[in-house]
Write a structure and sequence with these properties.
Layout: H1 2-15, H2 22-28, E1 29-30, E2 33-35, E3 43-47, E4 50-53, E5 56-58, E6 69-71, E7 81-86, E8 91-96, E9 99-105, E10 118-121, E11 124-126, E12 130-131, E13 136-137, E14 141-143, E15 150-153, E16 166-168, H3 170-179, E17 185-189
Parallel strand pairs: 7-17, 15-16
Antiparallel strand pairs: 1-2, 2-5, 3-4, 6-9, 7-8, 8-9, 10-17, 11-14, 12-13, 14-15
């Protein structure tokens, strides 16, 4: 039980800076998901003062490495999908409504071609796309800016980077592509807030 409480505390630290109420976490961890009791939902910063309430998080039971991801879409269909990218932790979290449905280690831009931060909406989606700027395949592309910044499948390996895009493991990118639509919100943060 102590190990389970420690895992839950690590998960909360992954997303929030708030103190952890061990009793609440202990009684609400069910299977592969942490459920928060009504009235005790944490919230995550998206941009500036905008925040979103979270009802449940995926229970990540081990450290994730390059190429790793978790996907468990148990949320109610019809809820809006939104994405939170934490560049400091090199982590993407996908939510359907207030429930996290996916989490992946990502690649992002180098110092010469950094990934922009802020609040974006998905402008365009394309299952198969080829970058005209870099003559490179960008499968499961979700365009965020008019100057070429997108989320797309990449070979996510240590030491790699993008030209400002967000690179995802291919299987995760495909799953994300299948639930996202134009207009969905993507928040990209430099460091967790």
């Amino acid at each position: 039980m102590a190990a389970l409480i420690a895992v839950c505390a690590v998960l909360l630290a992954r997303y929030t800076q708030a103190p952890v109420d061990r009793a609440v976490v202990e009684e609400r961890t069910i299977g592969s998901r942490i459920w928060y009791p009504k009235g005790h939902y944490p919230s995550l910063t998206l941009a500036g003062t905008e925040r979103r309430v979270v009802r449940s998080l995926l229970a990540q039971r081990h450290a994730m490495y390059f190429g790793d991801f978790i996907w468990e879409d148990v949320a109610k269909a019809g809820e809006p999908v939104w994405i939170r990218v934490d560049l400091g932790r090199q982590l993407m979290s996908v939510f359907r409504g207030a429930d996290e449905i996916g989490s992946a280690v990502i690649l992002y831009g180098t110092d010469g071609k950094p990934t922009p931060t802020g609040l974006f909406t998905v402008l365009e989606t394309a299952k198969e796309h080829r970058s005209s700027l870099y003559d490179a395949e960008m499968p499961f592309m979700l365009r965020l800016t008019n100057d070429g910044i997108a989320i797309h499948a990449s070979e996510v390996v240590e030491g790699s980077a993008t030209h400002g895009c967000i690179g995802l493991p291919a299987e995760f990118a495909e799953r994300l592509f299948n639930v996202i639509k134009r207009g969905d919100v993507v928040a990209i943060l430099r460091f967790s807030q």
